[in-house]
Design brief:
Strands 2-1-3-4-5 form a 5-stranded parallel β-sheet. It is of the alpha/beta class. The chain is built from 8 helices and 5 strands; from the N terminus they run αβαβααβαβαβαα. It has helices at about 10-40, 50-65, 85-95, 100-105, 125-135, 150-155, 165-195, 200-210, and strands at about 45-50, 75-80, 115-120, 140-145, 155-160.
Length: about 230
């Protein structure tokens, strides 16, 4: 029977993970806290990637719009690659390199954050999107493979995974996503505690308020005969 250390893929992952925690933790804590502040103030996170990186990017947006662990309010996060009609139309009319940049122009505003995921750090459509985002005043963060790479240089900040295999890079990108979400949620919880609120209670209260009729719109009580 083979042990874990007899499996090359697991060996690669364990080796890459050795220095990842120490290197990535402070960056991801800072990103998570900063993102919590921005999104709580009304900003939006845009995320994008190609192939497996697209799946990781969409995982991040799902954690923010849904939840990571504990219940809390939803926050605005949009996976640009997930709009297949937009991406295919843009690719057909403007070229594949524009599929994310054009959406950044449409959806992005100064103060928003664009996060780009790439195992190579060299995807042209991500580089063009990073350039457009910075022109518009967005902050650009990148999760990439080994440094140096073009996307690292085009971003305002980057976490670069030192691993040769794309599969290993993607797995550590998922770890990075969860570390960021952990920091994000912790920051939201702390803000709520300082303000004397509870995210889950606030969410339920908001849901009740949405269902409550406006003043003067309550239905009249029915009599015994249904009148």
């Amino acid at each position: 029977m083979k042990s874990v250390t007899d499996v090359p893929h697991c060996d690669d992952l364990m080796k890459a993970l050795e220095g990842f925690r120490e290197y990535a933790s402070p960056v991801l804590r800072r990103w998570g806290a900063g993102l919590a502040g921005r999104l709580a103030a009304g900003a939006r996170l845009l995320v994008a990637g190609n192939g497996g990186s697209a799946a990781q990017a969409q995982h991040l947006s799902a954690e923010l719009v849904g939840r990571y662990r504990d219940d809390r309010p939803p926050f605005s996060a949009l996976a640009l690659h997930a709009d297949t009609s937009a991406t295919t139309a843009i690719a057909n009319d403007y070229g594949v390199q524009e599929i994310f940049a054009r959406q950044v122009t449409a959806h992005g505003r100064a103060g928003d954050v664009l996060m780009l995921l790439s195992t190579s750090g060299a995807s042209e459509n991500l580089l063009v999107a990073a350039e457009e985002a910075r022109r518009l005043g967005l902050t650009v963060w990148a999760l990439t493979g080994p440094a140096p790479n073009p996307l690292e240089g085009a971003a305002d900040g980057a976490v670069c995974v030192a691993a040769a295999a794309a599969a290993t890079v993607q797995e550590l990108h998922l770890v990075a996503v969860h570390m960021l979400c952990e920091s994000f949620d912790l920051t939201i919880e702390r803000r709520a505690a300082v303000e004397g609120r509870h995210p889950a209670v606030d969410r339920r209260r908001a849901a009740v308020e949405r269902q409550r009729p406006a003043a003067g719109q309550w239905p009249a009580a029915a009599g015994k005969d249904g009148a």
